[in-house]
Design brief:
Layout: E1 2-4, E2 33-34, E3 48-49, E4 55-58, H1 85-94, H2 101-111, E5 116-119, H3 126-141, E6 153-156, H4 160-173, E7 181-184, H5 190-199, E8 203-206, H6 208-216, E9 227-230, H7 233-238, H8 242-250, E10 257-262, H9 267-276, E11 281-285, E12 297-304, H10 310-321, E13 326-330, H11 333-345, E14 350-353, H12 359-370, E15 376-380, H13 381-384, E16 394-397, H14 404-411, E17 420-427, H15 432-442, H16 454-478, H17 485-492, H18 498-511, E18 563-568, H19 578-588, E19 599-601, E20 606-611, H20 615-622, E21 625-628, E22 631-637
Parallel strand pairs: 4-11, 5-10, 5-11, 6-8, 6-9, 7-8, 9-10, 12-17, 13-15, 13-16, 14-15, 16-17
Antiparallel strand pairs: 1-12, 2-3, 18-20, 18-22, 19-20, 21-22
Amino acid sequence: MSILLDQYPDLNDSGDEITTSAAMTDTDADATDTVTADAAPDTSAAPEVTPSREAVEFEPAAVTADEPGDDTPAGPTFADLGLAPRLLETLDKLGYAAPSPIQAAAISPLIAGRDLLGQAATGTGKTAAFALPMLQRLADGRTARSRGAKPFGLVLAPTRELAMQVGDAVARYGAALGASVACVYGGAPIGPQLGQLRRGVDIVVATPGRAIDLVNRGALALDAIEVAVLDEADEMLDMGFVEDIETILGATPRGRQTVLFSATMPGRIQSLARTHLSDPADIRIKKEATPEGEAPRVRQTAYHVPRSHVTVALGRVLEMEQPTAAIVFCRTRADVDAVTETLTARGLRAEALHGGMDQEHRTRVVERLRAGRTELLVATDVAARGLDIDSLTHVVNHDVPSSPESYVHRIGRVGRAGREGVAITLVTPGSVRHLRNIERLIGASVPSAPVPSPEDLRTVRLARTALALREQAGQDADTPPQDGVEQLVVELARDHDLASIAAAAIRIARADNSVPDDEIEIPQVRSRGGRDSGPGDRGPRRDRDGRPGGARGQGARPPKAGATRLFVSAGRASGVRPQDIVGALANESRLSGRDIGAIQIHERHSLVEVPEHAADDVLRSLRGATTLKGRKANVRRDRDNAGAH
């Protein structure tokens, strides 16, 4: 099932669709007109007047934001917006042909000194929309201003990556004006940032946390700030920066110009605007209509798995999908490190990205993904914000995001320019409610699929091996290599038939790519609150791992035929993973990984299925205990299923 992302409506905090079908209109600083026509407005008609401020809504134009364009603009030019000649020359050198909708709407009122509340999606040119007027006001007032080392403008951004992008853009736009720009953020040495501020800068681009730190050190003076910009304000509030923002704005002059940009407009943003903005121009930009055949198409799939098997399931799904470039979103830094380790053990090229890494390392990781030297970027949501990777094919949610808007933002990174993208979400029983909220927002259900089984893995691996062998055989026929392999086969053929030799070679080659997790049977999970339940039917009570019943094993499905279940006195609280149990049993008994069946890891214990005929041998080999994560764990038959044996 493919869901077109351009069908998702922009939502306000009440869930109502925001109407954004207006054509370009005049943005005179004194106007309060609201234009909602689909074509150019009829100037002879009396406009609808709003009681407080204008809410100007625009259809997007063909030429976008901060990307150079060659087409002759049909709408207003940058010169029409009142920009200074030196800024126009810079834009011309950078190849910008025409303003994007948010730039066309915002630049004139910002040059005039008005506060502004703007809603536009990421990547629509917001940086130029606030940076160009800020630079022009800086240049116009330089001769009459004596600030010393105190900055004129302040831009707050939620993440280091976005702050760096904004800082680079502002520096490029202001180069001809001689504007000095400092970009300050956490995760980088503070010494050079302190030195730059002491020497004096015109504009500071900062993350809120580092800005507070510098203010407390007396290095960042805010009492001469004339323009303050909150970029991606909704993201900053989601990240818990609201108190920092209040503190920072409270330290700036009351008469400053304040600009707030946000991709969404929930009640918290509107409350922030009412507190800190004075009679702002209110501008909303409708998402660009994508030409037919180029609409982003995203194949969305949900895999319902027990919490203890999420990472194992992720490895299997990624092996089946074979993404060219993917971002795997995790909730915490610890999750990022653990998932990266597991995926790397499967032979996948995965790299971690989170706030615990220094900026230089983070930059190298992102560049390796862009260059195709790695396949998977495992990241926290915060660390991945601001990243724009054109080659991205897959977005994976290791955890279902609690915010439906975050889900839409994440999967909007793929499926561009008519290409199909893939969005994969792993859903535990406890996160089904978040999935239902997402489905309500997008207006469609996310299709579910079964987690690949061990047999599925074997089948696809054999198919890929066969393809690789055919390709290699074709190449060898064209140019026979002189590596002695054919002579070896001839010698082996004296004692074995060719089919046996080939099969043995394939098994040896595949042995290097297998991991203990491959043979684990992941229990099937029937999603709590699924669509097959009636509104008043909450279904049977389930424990944290999705098993029916309240107490351990109560109402649980019996082991499969020919198997019995063993109880292990260590679980999630001890950091035990399925691969730990498989390794312990395989190393300390005569079982192989493929003999071990379904494993269920609970908070303080685990259950594992083994062949009935081998259970007593396993217990004798283990002598009733094994070592897991450096601790002794008792092993015995599961009493709740003892009656079945």
